[in-house]
Amino acid sequence: MKKYIMFDLDGTLIDSSKDVTRLLIKALCDCGYPVAEDTYIKIGPPLNKMIEAAVPSVTQEDNQKIVEYFRKLYKVDGTVMTTPYHGIISLLKRLRADGCKIFIVTYKPRPMCKDLLPKFFEGLYDDLITPTDIDDFENGKSKVDMFKLLLKKWNTTADACVMIGDAKSDVECANAAGITSIGAEYGYAEKDDLKNADYIVSDVKDLYECIKSI
What we know:
The chain is an alpha/beta fold. The protein has helices spanning 17-30, 47-54, 60-77, 88-97, 110-113, 116-121, 143-153, 168-176, 207-213; strands at residues 4-7, 14-15, 83-84, 101-105, 127-129, 161-165, 180-184, 199-201.
């Protein structure tokens, strides 16, 4: 059993889709890009990519304004409908009891995690890595760089780790970093997003045995 367990946040540890969707739609509308209330928002990619997917015509300058406005909205009431997936809390407790180190690796900026993580996961994880921790992240950096930073901080190697995530980028970046990947099919993954994962689980209840078997 690998002892360094990396988790994505949105769509893997927490279901934040309702909060992210309603606030991003409000941000788009308030910033001059009116969209329908039922506009589909794909959760998981970095926020600027989510905006581009929802409104392909958005300019780079406006995209940044929408990002900043969304973060202000999120700070006020970004977690009112967000909850951990059923079984996640007990899973983290069980892994920690087994001596595992729990890491959260997320595209959500560190300030946006400030209130969220203590609310749900106080004492249940050992480290957090966000884009805020990576120099010049906006210029072509990815979770590969976040994984490398984590390995360096904890003086460990890729083969001692496993990464659990629900997004195509989670799987691709884990594979690129040489880290065993588990696709969380219960999250926001769409068809074929997780096809290159080393393992795929469809329910949180299956995660422990999957991790234990690796």
